[in-house]
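Researcher: We're teaching a course module on how sequence relates to structure. For the next exercise, students receive a sequence and then see the predicted structure as tokens, so they can try to spot secondary structure elements on their own. Here is the exercise chain.
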Amino acid sequence: MDSPWQPLEYALLNEFQRDFPLTARPYAELGRKVGASETEVLTTLSRLQQRGAISRIGAVFAPRRIGASTLAALQAPAARLDEIAAYVSARNEVNHNYQRDHAWNLWFVVAAADEQALQATLRDIESGTGCKILSLPLLAEYHIDLGFDLRGAHKHKTPAPVAVVPRRPDAAERRLMTALPAGLALAADPYAELGRRAGMDEARVLGYLQAWLEEGLVKRFGVVVRHHELGFHANAMVVFDVADAAITSVGRQLALEPGVTLCYQRRRCPPEWRYNLYCMVHGRSREAVVPVIERLNRIAGSRGEALFSTRRFKQCGARYFADAGARQAMAHA
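Model: And here is the predicted structure for the students to work with:
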């Protein structure tokens, strides 16, 4: 299949989801790497962002290292789905919100400064929607958020695992973490601009980002893409009920399979939800995804349940330390 992307577009989308330059003029550095001018890089990134292919350029924080987060689901009545989805998306604490073809039809990710704030947010959403919420926090990761390869939705090389050591950021770190979700500006000096938003100078911004990457607080820093706009229109969350004693072994096997872009263990929520192992599978069509799911079923030794996404209501960076009372609708149809 011919690529729909120009060579410069392809390089910027695929090669810089990790290891984005931490220098005063990062777009000029990108240009040197790909044989383009700084202006050409900025113009191309702006065009890709306008087309929706790029969500942002910024940090993907490691789960369970700062704040608190969970995957949540609710059963929205069909007649109220759009209304409820808009209400959920308007919460500043919600960074992803998808409709999936299942009785539990609205799935969203919530992040907050701590567990108390997280639970308060879930109670607010439950009260505001009138819908019971399943909260399914992450327990273990086997492969998660390491980039998205345009050559076939396969994984980029998995880095060595980093021990999960939660810590509380200091006040300056929190300011920078609050400014980060919007992403880097498409300007010659984006780290200086980020510093102005966070109340610190450029050198301090770059120092924090480098330190966070080295300690594993940030899993990757770079271009964050949207899979649907890249041509991967089928997105299935495949869930399995695996014996606790076997889940690490099974999870590691599934994580290595081509086509699996994420794999992790989450807490069960009985009696409504018995599943504890999750795989995300992306493909250009459902027909391309189904064989991957069948292969996962064979490896797992049981038949998983596939929840295909049908609509994306929201996708943005996690806001752990944003004002809990703020409401910012960032819906993306």
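Model: If you want an answer key for the exercise: Residues 9 and 307 are 31 Å apart (CA to CA). The two ends are 27 Å apart (CA to CA).
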